[in-house]
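[recover] target loaded
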C-alpha cells in the first residue's frame, strides 16, 4: 500500500517511449499485486488454470513486460525478502481486511452485484507458488531477478542510487523514502482503466517523480520527508489520526523534526526510531548481478502452456515479440544480452 505522498510531489506524465534505453528497477511484489488486482474477469474472478492456480500475475508479467521491452525499456525485477518484525502487525491487519473483502466479493458475485470487482481486487493476495512461478517466468524471459534481503523497494532504490538503474518502478511512494532518485508509476498499467464499481473509464498515464527536485520545492530534507511519512502513516505504522500530507509538512517545517510535531499533537509512534532507520539505512545487499539474457523461447512456452494452460499461439507470438524487441535498436547483441 505504501505511504500517501501524492499531494506533495509533482507527478510528470510521460509516454512510455520517453523511457527508451532506460533501466528500471521494478518492485516485483508491487507489480505482482497490481496484476492480481487488475487482470480479472468482470465479476472479479482472476485467471485460473486447470489445477486451480491463479495465473493473472503470469499473464501480466508475460504480456505487459513484453510491451515495456518493445518500448526500449530494460527492466530489472527486485523481490522482497524478510520483512522487519515491526511490520507484522500491519501485515496481520491487511490479512484481515483481505479476508473481509473476500467474503463481500463472494456475496456480490452470487447476486451479480456491481461491486463484485471492487471487493475482488481488495481481496488480492499472494499464495501458493506465485512468487516462485513469477521468478521462474521472468528468468526464462531473460530478465535480471534480484532477491532483496528485506524490502524490495529499498533494494531497488539502492540499485538506482548506485547508478545501475535510472528509476524505481512502483505504484507506491515509499521508494522516495528509501532514496530512489526517480520513481516511475503506472509503468505496466498505462491505457484505459475502468474504475471499480463505476461505469467510468479513465486514461492511466505513466508518471515520473523526481526526489531531489521535489525536496527542493518543499524546502525539506529526505530525513524530514521520512518524518512526514511517519506522521501520515507508512507500511510500518498507522500514522497520526487527522494528519494528512499537507498538515504533516507544516508540522515538520514548523518544528524541524518529528519530535516537536509529536509534542504539539500529544501523540507518539511505536518503533519510531527503527522505522526511521529502516528508511534511511535500509537492509540491502551490494552483491547483485544485472545481466540480461536471450529469452528461452521454448522453455517459456513449455512453462506457461503445458503447466498453466496458456494459449500456445498467444504465448508463442508474445515470445517472438520479446525476442525481436530485445534485439531491436542494439548496436550488438552482446550489448543487450
Amino acid at each position: 500500500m505504501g505511504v500517501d505522498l501524492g499531494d506533495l510531489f509533482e507527478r510528470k506524465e510521460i509516454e512510455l517511449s520517453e523511457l527508451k534505453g532506460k533501466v528500471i528497477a521494478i518492485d516485483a511484489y508491487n507489480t505482482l499485486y497490481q496484476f492480481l488486482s487488475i487482470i480479472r474477469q468482470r465479476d472479479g474472478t482472476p485467471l485460473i488454470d486447470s489445477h486451480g492456480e491463479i495465473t493473472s500475475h503470469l499473464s501480466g508479467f508475460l504480456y505487459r513486460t513484453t510491451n515495456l521491452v518493445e518500448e526500449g525499456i530494460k527492466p530489472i525485477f527486485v523481490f522482497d525478502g524478510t520483512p522487519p518484525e515491526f511490520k507484522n502487525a500491519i501485515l496481520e491487519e491487511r490479512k484481515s481486511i483481505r479476508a473481509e473483502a473476500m467474503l463481500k466479493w463472494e456475496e456480490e458475485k452470487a447476486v451479480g452485484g456491481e461491486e463484485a470487482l471492487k471487493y475482488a481486487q481488495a481481496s488480492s493476495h499472494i499464495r501458493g507458488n506465485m512468487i516462485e512461478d513469477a521468478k521462474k517466468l521472468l528468468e526464462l524471459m531473460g530478465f535480471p531477478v534480484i532477491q532483496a534481503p528485506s524490502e524490495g523497494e529499498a533494494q531497488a532504490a539502492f540499485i538506482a542510487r548506485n547508478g545501475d538503474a535510472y528509476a524505481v518502478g512502483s505504484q507506491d511512494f515509499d521508494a522516495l523514502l528509501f532514496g530512489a532518485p526517480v520513481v516511475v508509476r503506472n509503468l505496466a498499467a498505462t491505457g484505459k482503466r475502468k474504475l471499480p464499481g463505476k461505469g467510468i473509464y479513465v486514461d492511466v498515464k505513466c508518471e515520473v517523480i523526481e526526489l531531489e527536485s521535489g525536496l527542493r520545492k518543499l524546502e525539506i530534507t529526505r530525513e524530514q520527508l521520512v518524518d512526514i511519512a511517519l506522521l501520515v502513516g507508512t507500511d510500518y505504522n498507522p500514522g497520526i489520526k487527522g494528519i494528512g500530507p499537507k498538515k504533516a509538512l507544516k508540522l515538520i517545517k514548523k518544528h524541524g523534526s518529528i519530535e516537536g510535531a509529536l509534542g504539539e499533537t500529544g501523540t507518539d509512534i511505536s518503533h519510531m526510531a527503527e522505522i526511521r532507520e529502516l528508511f534511511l539505512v535500509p537492509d540491502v545487499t551490494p552483491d547483485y548481478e544485472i545481466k540480461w539474457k536471450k529469452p528461452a523461447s521454448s522453455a517459456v512456452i513449455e512453462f506457461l502452456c503445458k503447466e498453466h494452460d496458456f494459449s500456445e499461439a498467444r504465448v508463442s507470438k508474445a515470445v517472438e515479440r520479446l525476442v525481436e524487441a530485445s534485439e531491436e535498436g542494439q548496436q550488438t547483441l552482446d550489448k543487450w544480452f
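[recover] notes: The radius of gyration is 21 Å.
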